What we know:
This protein is α/β, with parallel strands linked by helices.
Amino acid sequence: MKPRRRFVCSDLHLGSLHWAGERGYADSPAEMNEAILSGLSGFLEDGDRVYFLGDVAHHRRDLALLGRLRGSKCLVMGNHDVLDAADYLEVFDALYGSREMPERGILLSHYPVHPRQLRDRYVLNIHGHLHRDCLGQGYLNVCLDIHLRGPAHRYSAAALYGPPAPPWLFDLHAVWQDCPPRPEGA
């Protein structure tokens, strides 16, 4: 059996009228939902795992759409993930406030952490939440809106696998391989 691929993305905002308009879907959340989900379902395979770093859906009906995706789905909660935990557990295999990968000092979170946390505890913070900004060294912003258009980031599934991989889906293994080991005592 081929090894499990692990991916990460953030801020889908399924069902959001605001984000549909911002993303050029003429204020049609259903059209935006379909574009996002078809990008994922056309690429993901059984055995894959995706970490969604918050702000996945604004309504139960939109959240349920994620159930059609293959593979394992984990949610790191974001500020717009306000439904009951039971609703999320119908779609996701696990819910987290944040997710540490201590072997490499990587933290998956919705919000970027304070720079002191990077210096003292983590090597890399993979996050979302910021729809327009990248913070620099030690941070990898995987928010969909940062990567929706323009050249594919070197860790994006689109750069590593080619079409039909979405440019806003990131390969966690590629990031892991490039990330230096966690400093001693961190």
